[in-house]
Write a structure and sequence with these properties.
4-stranded antiparallel β-sheet; 10 strands; 10 helices; MetN_ABC_transporter-like; ATP binding; alpha/beta; 254 residues; coiled coil
């Protein structure tokens, strides 16, 4: 059984269909990278999985918990499915450690000592333990994004969703964030990742899901998708992005 099962998911914005009958299964420990042109529904799909968008029809099922929004409330869903956004969503008036501790302590009712110990370990892993008592205004974009990842991980999610987490970063800051996600993949974290970083997608993904106009057009392992895409739409997309040169540049630095 899949850890996450999506069946015939439909999402509309007025008369515009953003997602048109999405079927997708994600296994435990699998890294699925979702690619496609802007406006194809990638981010909307992640937001539906996390309950941030109301769906028109279809079902989302999480193993051991049942149908999302029905058998399990969306508040509880977000404790099992973490999400990191393009914008960092850190509270500017709170220190790094207080930003991290807020969710586990308020929502999960965990003790500060326990959560802070976990937060310290995660901050060390992402190279930011020395910024524990800093404020968001004192951090670079890449540092803020790594803090946002740590904050989500402290909720002990079973699945992580990443929505264009490097899109707002300067090029030199992209690598530090992608390396954190790559390490999570190596540790077996189940992830759905929306990105335009083709080299990173090729490196981290177990499976590529290509979307266009609210539908899944093609799925394959990275090796086949990037070297021999089956559909003309995927071929055109990859040609426009000139993925070969970008992918080579990233992989040489891994």
């Amino acid at each position: 059984m899949a850890l996450l099962e999506i069946k015939n998911l439909v999402k509309n914005y007025g008369e515009v269909t953003a997602l048109n009958g999405i079927d997708l299964s994600v296994k435990k420990g699998e890294v699925v990278v979702i690619l496609g042109p802007s406006g194809c529904g990638k981010s909307t799909l992640l937001r539906c999985i996390n309950g941030l968008e109301e769906i028109k029809s279809g079902e989302l099922t999480l193993q051991n918990y049942g149908k999302l929004g029905k058998d399990i409330s969306w508040v509880e869903v977000r404790q099992h499915i973490g999400m990191v956004f393009q914008s960092y969503e850190l509270f500017s008036h709170m220190s790094v450690i207080d930003n991290i501790l807020l969710g586990p302590m308020k929502v999960q009712k965990r003790k500060r000592e326990e959560v802070e110990k976990q937060a310290d370990e995660l901050l060390k892993r992402v190279g930011l333990y020395d910024r524990k008592n800093a404020y968001p205004r004192e951090l670079s974009g890449g540092q803020k994004q790594r803090i946002a990842i740590v904050r989500s991980l402290c909720m002990n999610p079973e699945i992580m969703l990443f929505d264009e987490v490097t899109a707002a970063l300067d090029p030199e800051m992209v690598r530090e964030v992608l390396d954190v996600i790559l390490n999570l993949a190596k540790e077996g974290m189940t992830m759905l990742i929306v990105t335009h970083e083709m080299g990173f997608a090729r490196q981290v993904a177990d499976r590529i899901v290509f979307m266009d106009k609210g539908e899944i057009i093609e799925q394959d392992i990275p090796e086949y998708f990037f070297t021999n895409p089956k559909t003309d739409r995927a071929k055109a997309f990859l040609n426009i992005l000139n993925y070969e040169s970008r992918g080579t540049d990233y992989e040489q630095n891994i």
